């Protein structure tokens, strides 16, 4: 068995989601793209929140209609 002590952050790119997370984290520290990538992620987050709130509102309305 071989082993080596490792200090730092470990990235697991053995699956698609791990690969994507790693790419994003590296992109967020890359001097040429970090600002644009950060802005894009914030924009996507806002869009996801709007969709989530819209879905939540629709679910609440549906539940109220069922109770009546």
Q: What proportion of the residues is helical, as a percent range?
A: over 70%
- Chain-averaged pLDDT: 90
Radius of gyration in whole Å, from Cα? 20 Å
Beta-strand content bin? under 5%
Total tally of structural domains: 1
Total strands: the figure is: 0
Give the helix/strand class: mainly alpha
What is the distance, rounded to the nearest whole angstrom, between the alpha carbons of the first and last residues? Answer: 67 Å
Global morphology: elongated
Low-confidence stretches at least 5 residues in length (pLDDT < 50)? none
Element-by-element helix/strand order: HH
Main sheet makeup = none
Helix count? 2
Protein name: UTP--glucose-1-phosphate uridylyltransferase
Organism: Tetragenococcus osmophilus
Can you give a write-up of this model?
The protein has one domain (16-67). The chain is mainly α. The mean pLDDT is 90. The chain has two helices and no strands. This is UTP--glucose-1-phosphate uridylyltransferase. Residues 58-68 have a biased composition (Basic and acidic residues). Residues 48-68 are annotated as: Disordered.
Task: Describe the structure concisely.
The chain is built from two helices and no strands.
């Amino acid at each position: 068995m071989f082993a080596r002590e490792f200090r730092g952050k470990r990235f697991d790119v053995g699956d698609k989601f791990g690969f994507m997370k790693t790419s994003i984290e590296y992109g967020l520290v890359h001097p040429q793209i970090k600002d644009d990538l950060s802005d894009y992620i914030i924009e996507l987050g806002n869009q996801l929140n709007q969709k989530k709130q819209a879905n939540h509102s629709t679910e609440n309305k549906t539940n109220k209609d069922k109770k009546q």
